[in-house]
Specification:
423 residues, alpha/beta, Rossmann fold, 7-stranded mixed sheet, 13 helices, globular, binds nicotinamide-adenine-dinucleotide
């Protein structure tokens, strides 16, 4: 990765999570002794994924499935295909899922999976073989009542369809509820593909109201223009905001009067990146951090906002579409400057919320309309922002710590009530 590396090599995603969880300890009262349960994953599986390449050679890839905590229900969390996937990252991502499902009060625990691979370098047939072998290797620990994967960076509904089919083949019957984010005609849910971006927008609107920021004419900068970033950019644009810059793995584009987001989506679908989009100026990737903006939406990978970058950001609000984009010290630097940060565990929870709806619909074999889904999604997200905001005000802490307080109370209460086996 070019510009997506940790600035401080001694810090990693799991350490970021541990620092976040430590900040909750003073608020947990008699649940504090149970906090250690969240400082380690419940279960971590590392698998070898050998596949026959199109040229007849054999290549081995390393895959992971981590179940961080299952106190409140089956594991839930995406599968990432990316060259920098490792156990540390998957552990952190699984832990953030534990917190996220609990903040939204969904009846799930937290899990995550991934394969260290650059999916862009595989043919469609190789990608299918990789997915089917990976699914087989992790199948002992996944299932609709055990752990339910979903898409993340580098994976998509097609891949979820292959996962569902592979798992079902092993069971001898179709098991739609084993993964979410599937194509709609395979038991997927309407609204799922756009749900995370929609959630970023909905939580952003709520936070903007709280801080008195009008969306009309406000300047938005989005890092990452995939599933999450492109939909968030589209909805902000529709609401009257100007998306002045977008960065992805191919570069950064800028237009002072705002980009035509719909046209950019079409361009990216054809060219696999924003570079070369007409009606915009190409700027240096690092220059993005100095642009004049009201709202910044990190929607690429973790470890993006370092202290140095936090000090340069002019945004009034940061909406964490990506998981773990902000280092704890950078969080402090932004808060000290009065910047509102809507943390990942609530901001990007729209996807897991509609994944929950998909799982419920699969169980019932009864499917809802897109309007019903969006209405229920918006309601859950708006209520969650209100709960987190009220907790932050009451405790005098950041929105992130408030979200962690609400989540940890729910998880650790479940832990305490279930007791420690064998006692
Ligand atoms: P995606 O694969 O659809 O898009 C990722 C985007 O990041 C692409 O535009 C890519 O070009 C960009 N990117 C990659 N490398 C980059 C680089 N070096 N510099 C700048 N941009 C770069 O992934 P996604 O599903 O949109 O996920 C993005 C983030 O949102 C991740 O952190 C993911 O964990 C999180 N997230 C996704 C979902 C979901 O439902 N898809 C849900 C919750 C959180």
């Amino acid at each position: 990765m070019s510009n997506l590396s940790y600035a401080n090599e001694n810090t990693n995603a799991w350490q970021t999570y541990l620092a976040q969880i430590d900040r909750v300890a003073p608020y947990l009262g008699d649940l504090t002794p149970y906090l250690d349960t969240l400082k380690r994953p419940k279960r971590a599986l590392i698998v070898d994924v050998p596949i026959v390449m199109d040229d007849g050679s054999i290549q081995h890839f390393e895959g992971y499935r981590v179940q961080h905590n299952l106190s409140r229900g089956p594991g839930k969390g995406g599968i990432r295909y990316h060259p920098s996937v490792d156990l540390n990252e998957v552990m952190a991502l699984s832990a953030w899922m534990t917190i996220k499902t609990a903040v939204l009060n969904l009846p799930f625990g937290g899990a995550k999976g991934g394969v260290r691979v650059d999916p862009r370098k595989l043919s469609t047939r190789e990608l299918e073989r990789l997915t089917r072998r990976f699914t087989t290797e992790i199948s002992p620990i996944i299932g609709p009542q055990k752990d339910i994967p979903a898409p993340d960076v580098g994976t998509n509904p097609n891949i979820m369809g292959w996962m569902m089919d592979t798992y079902s083949t092993g069971q001898g019957h179709t098991v739609t509820g084993v993964v979410t984010g599937k194509p709609v005609h395979l038991g997927g849910s309407l609204g799922r593909v756009r749900a995370t971006g929609r959630g970023v927008f909905v939580t952003g609107v709520e936070a903007a109201k709280k801080i008195g920021l009008s969306l009309e004419g406000s300047k938005v900068v989005v890092q990452g223009f995939g599933n999450v970033g492109s939909e968030a950019a589209y909805l902000f644009n529709q609401a009257g905001a100007k998306v002045v810059a977008v960065q992805d793995h191919t570069g950064t584009i800028f237009a002072a009067n705002g980009l035509d987001v719909k046209a950019l989506q079409k361009y990216v679908a054809e060219h696999q990146g924003v570079a070369g989009f007409s009606d915009a100026e190409a700027i240096d990737n690092e220059a993005m951090w100095d642009l004049d903006m009201d709202i910044f939406v990190p929607a690429a990978l973790e470890g993006q906002i370092t202290v140095a970058r936090a000090e340069r950001l002019t945004a009034k609000m940061v909406l964490e579409g990506a998981n773990g984009p902000t280092y704890p010290e950078a969080d402090d630097a932004l808060i000290a400057r009065g910047v509102t940060i809507v943390p990942d565990v609530i901001c990007n929870a729209g996807g897991v919320t509609v994944s929950y709806f998909e799982w419920v619909q699969d169980m019932a074999s009864y499917f809802w309309s897109e309007d019903e889904i969006n209405e229920r999604l918006d309601k859950l997200m708006i209520n969650a922002v209100a709960d987190v905001w009220n907790t932050a005000t009451e405790k005098g802490c950041s929105l992130r710590t408030a979200a962690y307080i609400l989540a940890c109370e729910r998880i650790l209460k479940a832990r305490k009530e279930r007791g420690i086996f064998p006692g």
